[in-house]
Amino acid sequence: MEESLAEMGRRPARWPESTELMTLPTESALPLAMADTVDPIWLASYPADVPATIDADRYPSLHAMLLESCRLHAARPAFESLTAHMTYAEWDRDSRALAAFLREEVGCRPGDRVAIMLPNMLAYPVAFLGTLRAGLIAVNVNPLYTPRELEEQLADSGATVIVIMENFAHKLEAVIAETAIRHVVVARLGDFVPTLKRWAFNFANSYIERAVPAWSFDAFTMMQDACNRAPGEHYLDAQTRATDVALLQYTGGTTGVPKGAMLTHRNLIANTLQCLTWTGADKESAEQRVLTPLPLYHIYSLTANLLSFAKVGGLNVLVIDPRNLDRLVRIMRGARPTVMSGVNTLYNALLHRDDFAALDFSALSIALGGGAAIQGEVAQRWRAVTGIDVTEGYGLTEASPVVCINTVRQPPKLGSVGLPVPSTEVSIRDDHGAAVPIGGHGEVWVRGPQVMAGYWQRPAETAAVLTADGWLKTGDIGMLDGEGYLKLLDRKKDMVIVSGFKVFPNEVEDIAVQHPGVLEAAVIGIPDEHTGQAVKLFVVKADPALTETALREFLRERLVNYKRPHVIEFRASLPKSNIGKILRKELH
């Protein structure tokens, strides 16, 4: 599919189904006459050993990059989960077996979508790499989604196969008839674990959402069985192009409607190299142990942890449930990570624990902060306890996700989210798309090899955020200072950020008004000391007998926990404009 990004806006309402992988042009294919340049003032602030650019075309595909690591570091442990390890050689073997199973037994064809609905367990990296090796497109799915949310994402992506942890299979069973899923691969916590250690994994089931439910599907395979199957004699990994789509990562983007950002192999390769070049983690790969408490189905953890440290032969210490702080602290004590990633909520929670403060932090060199702003008080207390700074950055799903990171070898610039990473341009624009002077406020625009190809089957939404010459309109309001550091000031849209996860008022409002007792609803974000922001729901009753308890139960069945209102306020009316639009800005 060789067409410009401008032409994407003239497509039909839905993308045509195809057995070919979705391919978009590289930056060099964009119309040069339309390109505009910015002065990269940030380069003067770069550390001496960080180059201005990276080679985004170094690898032909994302799986080629990962498989190089599997060959170079075969004997090293790649992943640890509940004391069990998977080496790079085992990751190579098991992911190849799964890829062959998907192609030879399930009949998947290039470009088919495979949903991956797994927490941080050994099955996740096997499913992700196996999907890519088969020439398929991965679709990350939050295991905590309600059946409604799961059905919507499966329907939108058109996934025909899903890899799901057995503890969550009851959700799929409730909606599978309404989706295109034709084969289910069921993963267990003890998959890829030596028999003698499986007791630990069975014990850990108490930390998952619920006990293993009864389920039944017409076509299913246990993941361990699929990976125990020998590939066919003529099996070869897919010869994927770098511009093919590797991942559909769902996000509300800048419009508030959940949609799949099409991240290509090249996008993810580029962002991985950008992160490694910036942090310098590639220079000491043999000793890198990265703590991975954030879910790998979130793009921040996928890129900053799995991809970046797998690229250099490091060890990802997978945390299946970071909400269990007792276990998390015990894992940190045993793993002694050199790098960790987190969000403000997690760092703040750890700082309130005496057992965390008693840990030995001598091995820890980098603590990455993203997903939401790191509060100043949290940053100061973190340095006081651990002896290192939280390195804050900025990104969004549509940029794979990293755009800017603060320097890691010197104190961060307070109040900023850092400098643009190599091969990345940042420009501040006014409402007409014109660049504003340094120090001026405006919308943050981003351009670089990590910027998505577009939104899956949504050409109008794609055209609204991607310009013909490759700029991504982020919807965030910010400013660049004279040294090239980016400071975020506000959000252009009304999205609410709860522990790093985006919550979109339209979705919550739409669900709330489905209750027969609700006449009108409006959602805003309010400050919360634990999660950064929390959801507040305003309701005008249609039924005077409606209670808060009844409404909360209704929402609990339809929304994942972070989207549920923290506060519900009943009002006689809601403020409206002269055309009847509810004015959220007048609510507080």
Topology:
Blueprint lengths: L4 H4 L53 H11 L4 E5 L2 E4 H17 L8 E5 L5 H11 L3 E4 L6 H11 L3 E5 L3 H7 L7 E5 L10 H7 L15 E3 H6 L16 E7 L7 E6 H15 L9 E4 L6 H13 L3 E4 L6 H11 L3 E4 L1 H8 L2 H4 L8 E4 L6 H11 L3 E6 L6 E4 L13 E2 L4 E5 L12 E6 L6 E2 L3 H7 L6 E9 L5 E6 L4 E3 L2 E3 L1 H8 L5 E11 L3 E10 L6 H9 L10 E4 L18
Parallel strand pairs: 1-11, 3-4, 3-5, 4-8, 5-6, 6-7, 10-11, 10-12, 12-13, 13-14, 25-26
Antiparallel strand pairs: 1-2, 8-9, 9-19, 14-15, 15-16, 17-18, 18-20, 20-21, 22-23, 24-25
Helix pairs in contact: 2-3, 3-4, 5-6, 9-10, 12-14
Could you write a compact summary of the structure shown?
With 588 residues, the protein is α/β, with parallel strands linked by helices.
Keywords for this entry:
588 residues, alpha/beta, Rossmann fold, eight-stranded mixed β-sheet, 26 strands, 27% helix, globular
